[in-house]
Amino acid sequence: MKTCDEYQEMISTYIDVELTDTETSKLFYHLGECEACRTMMKSMFQLRSALFEIDQPKGKRNESVSLWKRRVSISFPIAALFAFFVITSAITFVQQVFFRKEFERPVRVEYISSKPLPTVYVIEPSKVQTHIN
Amino acid sequence: METSSDAVLLEQLRNGHQPALGQLYTRYQERVLRYCIRLLKDSQSAEDAMQNVFVKLQSERNSIRNVHSLQSWVFTVARNEAFGELRRRKGEVLDEEIVWEGVLPDEELSGKNRREIVEAALNALYPSFREAIILREYEQMSYDEIARVTNTTVSSVKSRLFKARKALIEKLKPYLHDAP
Fold first, then answer.
1. Which residues of A touch B115 (CB under 8 A)?
2. Average pLDDT, stretch B96-101?
3. Confidence (pTM)
4. Which of B167, B78, B154, B85 is nearest to B126 (CA)?
């Protein structure tokens, strides 16, 4: 029968994906009954995370940060300017779509005449005869 | 652009194709330097150790035979360089099963942020334990490969990693938490 110390060494091997399937089954059976070993498992993953952090360049955001938990902070004047821009754009858009005046609409010209259109003859330049009186 | 494997580049190097050395340098330089810095805790010494690795790669290229992987060879040479420097600094570095190299009192940790505390704790580990953590956590090497680089057994690698992690967890317990 293994001791907790032996199981905790198996945890260390498990997190490195170096444990066999048989050993993994035994380990998880034990974890179901031992809170101390479960705590050690959690601590090993937390340690890994902490060690990963120190290898990152300072100032770089931790890659394990959840996308949904990011906080964005901007100054009030920039936020106010952004809000003003958004509102102005929205008002302009609404005006353009719903309140366009008639004369702003593109004009279509139709020629309407009751008289027949004049006949236009196209004369080729080479056939023009010059009459000199 | 096709990337040549280590074996291909090594063969090219043996045939006198110097650009192959440049490609291998580009491939391994940063990792080897980072490994040496973590072991030696001094960037100048680490830089010297790293350069010596590639000098040896050039000078011993024809004698690198039956090597399981060039990565193992590179890190083994880097380890030998780093441990050689440690011996020069402190006398014989024994592979004793002492986890902490020195005392890391809690007073020394106060006032530091979490990153600095974790870094200080890692640096306080005995070199053989610190190196096991570095090769596993940062170089993602398998136990087999770590055993080859450190000239020890897989069983010894398992044991060192467990003892190092357990010691770090005990020391860093107040500072460990789930990722935000």
1. 53-54, 58
2. 76
3. 0.70
4. B167
